[in-house]
Specification:
The structure holds two protein chains of two kinds.
Chain A lengths: L2 H73 L12 H37 L3 H37 L2 H89 L13 H156 L4 H134 L4
Helix pairs in contact in A: 1-2, 1-4, 2-3, 3-4, 4-5, 5-6
Chain B lengths: L2 H18 L11 E9 L2 E6 L3 E6 L13 E7 L2 E7 H4 L4 H7 L4 E5 L5 E6 L1 E11 L2 E4 L2 E6 L2 H7 L9
Parallel strand pairs in B: 2-10, 5-7
Antiparallel strand pairs in B: 1-2, 1-8, 3-6, 4-5, 6-7, 8-9, 9-10
Family (chain A): Belongs to the methyl-accepting chemotaxis (MCP) protein family.
Protein name (chain A): Methyl-accepting chemotaxis protein
GO cellular component, one term (chain A): membrane
Chain lengths: 566, 165
């Protein structure tokens, strides 16, 4: 919807609201007016009717009083009853009273009907107070009707007595009629008071209607104002919010920020404006992007050029330093070569002395090896002798076992001989002595074998210990022999190495002399390279200055391009 | 001092005493009894020499399925079967002591009829004339218990005939 359509719609709604409020106010004013007119008309009519009723009631009362007064004047005496004594004028007055009574009754009935109708109308319009008032008035009038009917009936009865000339009856009924007339008058007065109260209630009702209408009108005005404010706020919001977005977008573009979301587009005025601004931002973004890319490329190229020139300058400086170091190193090499030559001559002499010393060491090791071989051979002989001795001790042990067995057998033989001698009795006594001696000898032999076996055990343990020690000595001699062999081979290797070193040092001396000549040529070449490097360094410094200017220019362009955030 | 040395000393003492008790010297007439003294474990047993036929080395025996645990087996000697009675088992010595001192070394062949009995003892020390009574004798301060073979015969066979073979 366009802005013009929104504004037109807002104005239209405002006018309709004003018309509605005006119509409502007129309606409420009409209601108050109608209510006032109705109350005034009803009350005025009721006052007139009540005035007529009161007037009629007085007329009837006066007429009845005149009839009774005339009758009593004409009668003069109480008895007897004489209808002929009633004059015709009284009869005419009675007839006239009856007509007045009929009119009065008609007036009273009409008034009751009107008040009942007013009650229904008040109830219909919702005026409860007025309806109650009219209902009360109607009830009072209906009570007055009943009282009037009774009064009319009693009056007619009295009038009949009057026509009959019955003065006693008239006198008897007169006090009651007087009282009834007073009651009827009071009832009518109550009706008039009720009407006055109803009029006051009507005035109050009019005031209430006016206050109610005023309050409703105020509320209608308030609601209309609120609705108008709401409509105005909606319209302003639908216009101002896009305008704020456009303002923010323009501010961001002005600050160089092109990264925001695109604006809303549409067929209305703001949509077309958003489309135009989006196109403008897109164009600026493309231009900025291309500018940034070109500037970045330029900056990178400048940086590469500068880096290359700096690397080249550093390389040239390193080259010059290397040339310096190379020249110094070559000079040191020259001096070192001379010292190497001198040292090499000294080393050659020392090495030749070492070769001679190694030969002496080899001779000493050879003698040690031969001595160890002799020790080993003697140890082996000793071990063989000990083994032979051990075998002989074992043979002695076997012999001892045999002797022990023999002594055991002799022991048993002597015992059996003793048993046989005992069996022989006295004849065997001498034999028993011999057997006993034999047994003693056998036991002694056995004890001797035990001692010999003990000694042999000790000898055997000593032999075993000697065998182990001899074997250990032979093993150690073998180890010493192996180590001597290793020492011999080592000394031979050292001797060979020293001889090779002598030859090497002799070659070193010759090479050092040739090296001195070559280093002098190198020194001349280094001088030429140094001059060329100094010229290259000067050109590199000029190139570095130009690259630095280019990089600075690219940096400024980057700063300008960075103002736009893409 | 081991067991053999103790036995050797005992033999020497016995020899000295025997020489001292030879006729011609100072003798005290005391009733003595000729016994074959044997060792069974740590005990010394004395058997009447008249009950013994011979003493031989114990070289094993043929094991037989017998009900008595004390009977080790049988051997043949001089055309007879001898039931070998293990004195250690007979005296109810412990098996641990049996393992510590080794098995029996000697057999004593007893006189008497069937069954012929042979006592397996640790060692037969010899013939000794010992004084004493009441079933015990003194051998150089050591107590020698008298062992009657009749207890074996009443247990393992018929009573021996009066006449010796």
């Amino acid at each position: 919807m366009t802005i013009a359509a929104r504004l037109f719609l807002g104005f239209l709604i405002s006018i309709l609201l004003l018309i509605g409020v005006g119509v409502f106010a007129l309606n409420r004013i009409g209601t108050v007016r109608d209510t006032t007119v109705a109350i005034i008309n009803h009350d005025i009519w009721a006052y007139r009717a009540f005035q007529n009723i009161l007037q009629g009631q007085i007329t009837l009362l006066e007429a009845r009083r005149a009839i009774i007064v005339d009758f009593m004047q004409e009668k003069q005496t109480v008895a007897p009853v004489n209808p002929d004594a009633t004059p015709p004028s009284i009869a005419a007055a009675v007839t006239q009273w009856r007509a007045l009574a009929a009119d009065f009754s008609s007036q009273l009935n009409k008034t009751v009907a009107v008040t009942a109708e007013n009650e229904q109308q008040a109830a219909a319009v919702g005026n409860g107070v007025r309806a109650d008032s009219w209902r009360g008035i109607t009830a009072i009038l209906q009570q007055a009707q009943r009282q009037f009917e009774q009064l009319q009936s009693d009056s007619l009865t009295e009038f009949n007595a009057v026509e009959q000339g019955d003065s006693l009856t008239v006198m008897a009924s007169e006090p009651k009629l007087v009282d009834d007339n007073k009651v009827f008058g009071k009832t009518l007065s109550q009706a008039v008071d009720a009407l006055a109260a109803g009029s006051s209630a009507g005035v109050t009702r009019i005031g209430e209607l006016y206050a109610e209408g005023r309050m409703l009108l105020i509320w209608a005005v308030v609601v209309a104002v609120v609705l108008l404010i709401l409509i105005a706020w909606i319209i302003l919001r639908s216009i101002i919010r896009p305008l704020e977005a456009f303002t923010g977008f323009a501010e961001r573009v002005g600050l160089g920020d092109l990264t925001g979301d695109p604006l809303r587009v549409g067929r209305d005025e703001l949509g077309r404006l958003g489309k135009t601004l989006n196109g403008m931002a897109e164009s600026l973004r493309d231009v900025s992007l291309q500018s940034r890319q070109l500037t970045s490329t330029l900056n990178a190229s400048a940086a590469q050029i500068r880096a290359s020139t700096q690397e080249q300058a550093a390389s040239v400086e390193q080259q010059l330093a290397a040339l310096q170091e190379t020249a110094a190193t070559a000079d040191e090499i020259t001096h070192s070569g001379a010292r190497i030559s001198t040292r090499a001559q000294e080393v050659i002499q020392v090495a030749q002395q070492a070769v001679q010393t190694s030969a002496n060491g080899l001779n000493a090791v050879g003698e040690a090896v031969r001595a160890m071989d002799a020790i080993r051979e003697q140890g082996e002989v000793v071990a063989a002798n000990i083994v032979a001795l051990s075998e002989k001790t074992q043979a002695i042990g076997e012999i001892i076992s045999t002797v022990n067995d023999v002594s055991e057998r002799a022991h048993l033989l002597a015992l059996n001989a003793a048993i046989e001698a005992a069996a022989a009795g006295e004849n065997g006594r001498s034999f028993a002595v011999v057997a006993s001696e034999l047994k003693v000898l056998a036991d002694q032999a056995k004890e001797a074998t035990v001692q010999v076996r003990s000694l042999l055990g000790e000898i055997q343990r000593g032999i075993n210990s000697s065998v182990m020690m001899t074997e250990e000595a032979v093993k150690r001699v073998a180890v010493g022999r192996e180590r001597s062999d290793v020492t011999e081979r080592t000394i031979e290797a050292i001797t060979a190495s020293v001889q090779e070193s002598v030859q090497t040092f002799q070659q070193i001396v010759a090479s050092t002399n040739q090296q001195q000549i070559g280093i002098e040529q190198v020194m001349g070449a280094l001088q030429n390279i140094r001059q060329a490097s100094q010229q290259t360094a000067a050109g590199t410094r000029e190139l570095d200055v130009a690259a630095s200017s280019l990089a600075e220019l690219a940096g400024q362009l980057m700063t300008l391009g960075d103002r736009y955030k893409i | 001092m081991n067991r053999q040395e103790e036995r050797a000393n005992a033999i020497l003492d016995l020899r000295t005493r025997a020489l001292a008790e030879r006729p011609g010297g100072i003798t005290i007439e005391t009733p003595k009894r000729a016994l074959i003294v044997v060792t069974v474990g740590a005990s010394l047993l004395g058997i009447d020499i008249a009950e013994v036929v011979a003493a031989i080395p114990f070289e094993g025996c043929a094991r037989m399925p017998m009900r008595e645990p004390a009977v080790l087996g049988v051997i043949g000697r001089g055309g007879r079967f001898y039931s070998v009675i293990g004195m250690r088992r007979m005296l109810a010595l412990s098996t641990a002591e049996d393992n510590a001192t080794g098995g029996p070394d000697h057999l004593l062949l007893l006189r008497g009829g069937a069954p012929h009995l042979a006592l397996a003892v640790d060692r037969v020390l010899g013939r000794f004339d010992l004084a004493g009574g009441g079933g015990s004798f003194d051998l150089d301060g050591r107590l020698v218990a008298f062992f009657d073979p009749e207890t074996l015969r009443s247990r393992f066979g018929r009573p021996a005939p009066d006449a010796h073979p």
